[in-house]
């Protein structure tokens, strides 16, 4: 699947009510493993305009095209991209939220090996395209876990040989206004002279809104009499949403531990609802989340459309990097690029 739009029609459109771009001129990006576009949306807010987005999931590609028809989207495995075309691209940033990899010792099945192959393909793209900056997001364990020490060393050595300086960090989306404790591991690598100007974004210093605050109006929208009491109880941040595997299981809020954490917030995590609770739903019962409510927990804008059935939509939401966190990291990269260019 490929969506192509003439260059003169490519403008950075935004949903009504979205924050304006924070930089005066746009930088270019290429995003791999783009998913639902939540990371690309955050980077757009930071001033990056994608010249190409790549994902192998047809429903995710449809989501991207629904929301940004001016973006060029290729629905293809990144390992099948034409290297001749890529070598001609001039890109400021190569970004992506890579599939969750397991440590080498934990790999047991063939499908456990696939994320590692995608990781290797990502670094081959870096050497082909040579963007000024690289932003890759994955599990915190890739950044801090002892089982991944050899991986980090190999990645850093390879990037250094290509002229990049690597920066690793684990950031919690809650520190950037997202109503959810969701920690992500980041690798940001930059060529000189850009690397010397990079520093990780600082937390906003403001408390993130609670689950009750964010979802109260939605829970009450169909007349549920228990919405006020439920919102008062759900006065904490959400646990991290879990998207689950593309190959196994349905739409629920994750393993037993995650469902227990949601139950403490008054949410039934065994499955998802098609609509908010109505007037006949018991006032003291635990409602299920809708896909849209899950998107609100991820700070994905209300107008961001999702393609596919309920399970496919939820997986796109659950796998997403919250846009405010992507924006914060994107702004830090944009500053480093622009400071170096102004010197």
Description of the molecule:
With 343 residues, the chain is of the alpha/beta class. The chain has 2 domains: 2-206 and 321-342, Vaccinia Virus protein VP39 (Rossmann fold, 3-Layer(aba) Sandwich), CATH 3.40.50.150; 211-318, no CATH class. Helices cover 36% and strands 14% of the residues. It contains 12 helices and 8 strands. Strands 1-4-3-2-5-6-8-7 form an 8-stranded mixed beta sheet, sandwiched between helices. Strand 5, helix 4 (110-129) and strand 6 form a beta-alpha-beta unit. Helix 1 (38-45) packs across helix 12 (323-342) and helix 7 (211-220) packs antiparallel against helix 8 (227-233). The radius of gyration is 20 Å and the shape is globular. The protein starts with a strand and ends with a helix. The relative contact order is 0.16.
Keywords for this entry:
alpha/beta; 12 helices; disordered N terminus; 2 domains; 8-stranded mixed beta sheet; Rossmann fold; 343 residues
CATH architecture of the largest domain: 3-Layer(aba) Sandwich
Q: Helix segment count?
A: 12
Q: Number of folding domains?
A: 2
For the sheet with most strands, the description reads:
8 strands, mixed
Question: How much of the sequence is in beta strands?
Answer: 5-15%
Structural class: alpha/beta
Question: What general form does the structure show?
Answer: globular
CATH topology of the largest domain: Rossmann fold
Q: Going by CATH, what is the homologous superfamily of the largest domain?
A: Vaccinia Virus protein VP39
| Average pLDDT metric | 89
Question: Any low-confidence stretches, pLDDT <50, length ≥5?
Answer: 1-17, 19-24
Provide the helix percentage. 25-40%
Total beta strands: 8
């Amino acid at each position: 699947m490929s969506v192509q739009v003439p260059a003169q029609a490519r403008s950075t459109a935004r949903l009504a009510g979205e924050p304006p771009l924070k930089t005066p001129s746009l930088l270019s990006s290429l995003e791999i493993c783009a998913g639902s576009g939540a990371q690309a949306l955050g980077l757009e807010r930071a001033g990056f305009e994608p010249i190409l987005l790549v994902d192998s999931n047809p429903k995710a590609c449809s989501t991207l095209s629904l929301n940004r028809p001016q973006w060029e989207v290729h629905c293809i495995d990144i390992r099948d991209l034409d290297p001749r075309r890529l070598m001609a691209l001039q890109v400021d940033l190569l970004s992506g939220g890579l599939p969750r990899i397991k440590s080498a010792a934990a790999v047991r099945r063939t499908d456990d090996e696939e994320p590692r192959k995608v990781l290797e393909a990502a670094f081959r793209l870096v050497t082909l395209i040579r963007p000024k900056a690289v932003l890759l997001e994955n599990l915190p364990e890739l950044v801090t876990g002892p089982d991944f020490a050899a991986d980090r060393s190999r990645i850093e050595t390879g990037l250094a040989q290509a002229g990049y300086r690597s920066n690793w960090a684990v950031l919690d989306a809650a520190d950037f206004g997202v109503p959810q404790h969701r920690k992500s591991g980041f690798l940001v690598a930059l060529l000189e002279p850009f690397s010397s100007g990079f520093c990780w974004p600082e937390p906003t210093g403001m408390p993130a809104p609670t689950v009750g605050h964010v979802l109260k109006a939605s829970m009450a929208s169909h007349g549920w009499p228990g919405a006020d009491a439920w919102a008062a109880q759900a006065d904490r941040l959400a646990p991290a949403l879990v998207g689950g595997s593309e190959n196994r299981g349905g739409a629920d809020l994750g393993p037993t531990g995650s469902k227990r954490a949601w139950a403490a917030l008054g949410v039934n995590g065994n499955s998802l609802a098609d609509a908010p609770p109505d007037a006949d739903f018991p006032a003291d019962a635990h409602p299920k989340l809708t896909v849209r409510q899950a998107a609100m927990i991820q700070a994905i804008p209300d107008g961001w459309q999702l393609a596919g059935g309920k399970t496919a939509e939820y997986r796109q939401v659950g796998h997403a990097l919250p846009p405010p966190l992507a924006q914060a990291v994107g702004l830090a990269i944009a500053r480093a690029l622009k400071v170096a260019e102004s010197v």
